Each structure stands twice: as structure tokens, then as C-alpha cells.
Amino acid sequence: MQRIYEPASLMEGEMLKGMLASEGIEAHLVGQNLLGGTGELPIFGLLGLSVDNDQAEYARELITAYNAALPLPGDEPESFPGTLVC
Q1: pLDDT at position 74, please?
Q2: Which residues pair with 3 in a beta bridge?
Q3: How far is CA 85 from CA 36, 39, 71, 73, in A?
Q4: How many domains, the chain?
Q5: Residues 9-37: pLDDT tens digits?
Q6: Does any domain span residue 39?
Q7: 3 contacts: CB under 8 Å, gap ≥ 6
Q8: Do 1 and 28 touch, CB atoms closer than 8 A?
Q9: Which of 1, 37, 40, 62 has a CA 20 to 30 Å removed from the CA of 73?
Q10: 27 in a domain, yes or no?
């Protein structure tokens, strides 16, 4: 197993885990149970996405592509131009 990414939040980690699963990559969100101790534990580095060694490179490519993605023109609602609402 390799730790390939540190999500900024639990929600981002779960969403990326689901995205990787849709591509056939089994990911594990490490540290999600430690978030309750935020006041006593360091804030950064608690969460991590881990995948099998043979899938790590492909998973990193998918996450990099996700982070670089921009909304398609016309996908945003008229009331919030420039904002993608999911």
C-alpha cells in the first residue's frame, strides 16, 4: 500500500475514494477516525488516501486530472456565474 494523496477534508477524501472506485481502484481513507481528536492532534496529515502499489501511479494521474479540471462553459447556473454547483 502507498499513501498517494492527503485530502483537505473528510468530504474530499470520500469523494476521491469514490472516484477511484469508479475506475476500479480500491482506495483506503486512512486516519478518518482520528479527526475527532483534532484539538489534541496535529491538524495536517491526519487523512491520507492509500492504494495498492501496482495502482498507485494510475491513481495519482486520476487525482491530478481531477485537481486540474475546470467546469465546462455553460455548466454553471446563471445566478452564480463562474461557480460550479454539484
Answers
A1: 67
A2: 50
A3: 29, 32, 9, 13
A4: 1
A5: 888 899 999 999 999 999 999 877 665 55
A6: yes
A7: 30, 48, 49, 50
A8: yes
A9: 62
A10: yes
Q: What is the rounded CA–CA span in Å between residue 26 and residue 83?
A: 31
Residues 47/76, Cβ–Cβ less than 8 Å: no
Domain with 32, as residue range(s), is 2-68
Helices then strands (H, E): number in the chain?
2, 3
Please choose, from the candidates 28, 10, 12, the residue with its C-alpha nearest in 3D space to the C-alpha of residue 63. Answer: 12
**Rounded to the nearest 5°, which phi and psi values hold at 4?**
-110, -15
Residue 35 lies in a domain: yes
Whether residue 57 has pLDDT greater than 90: yes
- How many whole angstroms separate alpha carbon 15 and alpha carbon 77? 22
Task: Output the pTM of the full model.
Answer: 0.70
pLDDT at 71 exceeding the cut of 80: no
User: Residue 34, class by beta-carbon neighbours within 10 Å (0-12 exposed, 13-18 middle, 19+ buried)?
Assistant: middle
CATH number of residue 37's parent domain: 3.30.70
